[in-house]
Protein backbone atom coordinates (compact mmCIF):
# COMPACT_ATOMS: atom_id res chain seq x y z
CA UNK A 1 0.00 0.00 0.00
CA UNK A 2 1.35 3.43 -0.89
CA UNK A 3 2.29 5.87 1.87
CA UNK A 4 -0.48 8.24 0.77
CA UNK A 5 -3.12 5.47 0.78
CA UNK A 6 -1.96 4.34 4.24
CA UNK A 7 -2.19 7.89 5.58
CA UNK A 8 -5.65 8.44 4.04
CA UNK A 9 -6.82 5.12 5.46
CA UNK A 10 -5.59 6.18 8.91
CA UNK A 11 -7.53 9.43 8.56
CA UNK A 12 -10.56 7.39 7.46
CA UNK A 13 -10.26 5.18 10.57
CA UNK A 14 -10.29 8.29 12.74
CA UNK A 15 -13.34 9.60 10.88
CA UNK A 16 -15.16 6.30 11.46
CA UNK A 17 -14.25 6.48 15.14
CA UNK A 18 -15.42 10.10 15.42
CA UNK A 19 -18.76 9.29 13.83
CA UNK A 20 -19.27 6.40 16.25
CA UNK A 21 -18.46 8.64 19.23
CA UNK A 22 -20.97 11.26 18.10
CA UNK A 23 -23.63 8.59 17.57
CA UNK A 24 -23.07 7.41 21.14
CA UNK A 25 -23.32 10.96 22.48
CA UNK A 26 -26.44 11.77 20.50
CA UNK A 27 -28.55 9.25 22.40
CA UNK A 28 -27.75 11.03 25.70
CA UNK A 29 -28.79 14.48 24.50
CA UNK A 30 -32.16 15.86 25.54
CA UNK A 31 -31.97 19.37 24.06
CA UNK A 32 -33.32 19.43 20.48
CA UNK A 33 -30.90 22.16 19.35
CA UNK A 34 -27.87 20.15 20.50
CA UNK A 35 -29.34 16.99 18.91
CA UNK A 36 -29.66 18.93 15.67
CA UNK A 37 -26.03 20.09 15.89
CA UNK A 38 -24.82 16.54 16.47
CA UNK A 39 -26.98 15.26 13.62
CA UNK A 40 -25.47 17.89 11.31
CA UNK A 41 -22.02 16.85 12.49
CA UNK A 42 -22.79 13.19 11.75
CA UNK A 43 -24.00 14.03 8.23
CA UNK A 44 -20.76 15.88 7.55
CA UNK A 45 -18.63 13.06 8.98
CA UNK A 46 -20.50 10.51 6.84
CA UNK A 47 -19.73 12.64 3.78
CA UNK A 48 -16.05 12.71 4.84
CA UNK A 49 -16.08 8.91 5.14
CA UNK A 50 -17.42 8.68 1.59
CA UNK A 51 -14.81 11.11 0.24
CA UNK A 52 -11.88 9.41 1.96
CA UNK A 53 -13.10 5.94 0.94
CA UNK A 54 -13.40 7.11 -2.66
CA UNK A 55 -9.86 8.53 -2.67
CA UNK A 56 -8.40 5.33 -1.19
CA UNK A 57 -10.27 3.27 -3.81
CA UNK A 58 -8.91 5.58 -6.53
CA UNK A 59 -5.43 4.53 -5.34
CA UNK A 60 -6.41 0.90 -5.98
CA UNK A 61 -6.52 0.11 -2.24
CA UNK A 62 -9.26 -1.13 0.09
CA UNK A 63 -10.64 1.57 2.41
CA UNK A 64 -10.93 0.90 6.14
CA UNK A 65 -14.45 0.10 7.22
CA UNK A 66 -14.07 0.90 10.92
CA UNK A 67 -11.75 2.52 13.43
CA UNK A 68 -9.53 -0.55 13.73
CA UNK A 69 -8.16 -2.10 16.93
CA UNK A 70 -6.83 1.12 18.45
CA UNK A 71 -10.04 2.86 17.46
CA UNK A 72 -12.02 0.24 19.38
CA UNK A 73 -9.84 0.79 22.46
CA UNK A 74 -10.28 4.58 22.18
CA UNK A 75 -14.03 4.18 21.74
CA UNK A 76 -14.21 2.04 24.88
CA UNK A 77 -12.43 4.75 26.87
CA UNK A 78 -14.71 7.41 25.41
CA UNK A 79 -17.80 5.36 26.26
CA UNK A 80 -16.62 5.13 29.87
CA UNK A 81 -16.18 8.93 29.97
CA UNK A 82 -19.56 9.43 28.34
CA UNK A 83 -21.27 7.28 30.97
CA UNK A 84 -20.77 10.00 33.60
CA UNK A 85 -21.90 12.88 31.38
CA UNK A 86 -25.40 13.89 32.26
CA UNK A 87 -25.97 17.55 31.50
CA UNK A 88 -25.96 19.34 28.18
CA UNK A 89 -22.94 21.51 29.07
CA UNK A 90 -20.82 18.43 29.73
CA UNK A 91 -22.05 16.84 26.51
CA UNK A 92 -21.29 19.90 24.37
CA UNK A 93 -17.83 20.17 25.95
CA UNK A 94 -17.23 16.54 24.96
CA UNK A 95 -18.36 17.35 21.41
CA UNK A 96 -15.88 20.22 21.28
CA UNK A 97 -13.07 17.91 22.50
CA UNK A 98 -13.91 15.42 19.74
CA UNK A 99 -13.73 18.16 17.13
CA UNK A 100 -10.42 19.42 18.54
CA UNK A 101 -9.10 15.87 18.13
CA UNK A 102 -10.35 15.76 14.53
CA UNK A 103 -8.63 19.06 13.72
CA UNK A 104 -5.42 17.80 15.36
CA UNK A 105 -5.55 14.58 13.31
CA UNK A 106 -6.01 16.55 10.10
CA UNK A 107 -3.09 18.82 11.04
CA UNK A 108 -0.89 15.77 11.68
CA UNK A 109 -1.90 14.32 8.33
CA UNK A 110 -1.02 17.55 6.54
CA UNK A 111 2.34 17.75 8.33
CA UNK A 112 3.38 14.56 6.53
CA UNK A 113 3.42 16.70 3.36
CA UNK A 114 2.46 13.85 1.08
CA UNK A 115 2.07 14.61 -2.60
CA UNK A 116 -1.59 14.11 -3.42
CA UNK A 117 -3.91 14.58 -6.32
CA UNK A 118 -5.66 17.98 -6.41
CA UNK A 119 -9.06 16.36 -5.70
CA UNK A 120 -7.70 14.75 -2.53
CA UNK A 121 -6.28 18.09 -1.43
CA UNK A 122 -9.65 19.78 -2.08
CA UNK A 123 -11.39 17.13 0.00
CA UNK A 124 -9.00 17.81 2.88
CA UNK A 125 -9.72 21.56 2.66
CA UNK A 126 -13.45 20.74 2.61
CA UNK A 127 -13.02 18.56 5.72
CA UNK A 128 -11.06 21.29 7.53
CA UNK A 129 -13.79 23.83 6.78
CA UNK A 130 -16.43 21.42 8.06
CA UNK A 131 -14.45 20.72 11.23
CA UNK A 132 -14.18 24.43 11.95
CA UNK A 133 -17.89 25.00 11.26
CA UNK A 134 -18.86 22.11 13.54
CA UNK A 135 -16.50 23.20 16.31
CA UNK A 136 -17.76 26.79 16.22
CA UNK A 137 -21.39 25.61 16.22
CA UNK A 138 -20.77 23.61 19.39
CA UNK A 139 -18.82 26.50 20.92
CA UNK A 140 -21.63 28.94 20.16
CA UNK A 141 -24.15 26.53 21.70
CA UNK A 142 -21.97 26.29 24.83
CA UNK A 143 -21.80 30.07 25.14
CA UNK A 144 -25.53 30.58 24.63
CA UNK A 145 -26.46 27.85 27.10
CA UNK A 146 -23.91 28.58 29.81
CA UNK A 147 -25.26 28.33 33.34
How would you summarize this macromolecular structure in one to three sentences?
The protein has helices spanning 3-26, 32-58, 68-83, 88-111, 118-144. The chain has 147 residues and is mostly helical.
Structure description:
- The chain is mainly alpha-helical.
- It has a single domain (3-144), classed as Ferritin, core subunit, four-helix bundle (Ferritin, Up-down Bundle).
- The chain has helices at residues 3-26, 32-58, 68-83, 88-111, 118-144.
- InterPro entries: DUF2383, Ferritin-like.
- Residues 5-107 form the DUF2383 domain.
- It comes from Candidatus Merdibacter merdavium.
- This is PA2169 family four-helix-bundle protein.
Topology readout:
Layout: H1 3-26, H2 32-58, H3 68-83, H4 88-111, H5 118-144
**Helix fraction?**
over 70%
- Basic shape: elongated
**What are the secondary-structure elements, in order, as H or E?**
HHHHH
The rounded Rg comes to: 16 Å
Strand content: under 5%
Tally of helical segments: 5
CATH homologous superfamily, by name?
Ferritin, core subunit, four-helix bundle
The N- and C-terminal alpha carbons lie at a distance of 51 Å
Observed structural traits:
Ferritin-like; DUF2383; 80% helix; Ferritin; 147 residues; PA2169 family four-helix-bundle protein; elongated; mainly alpha
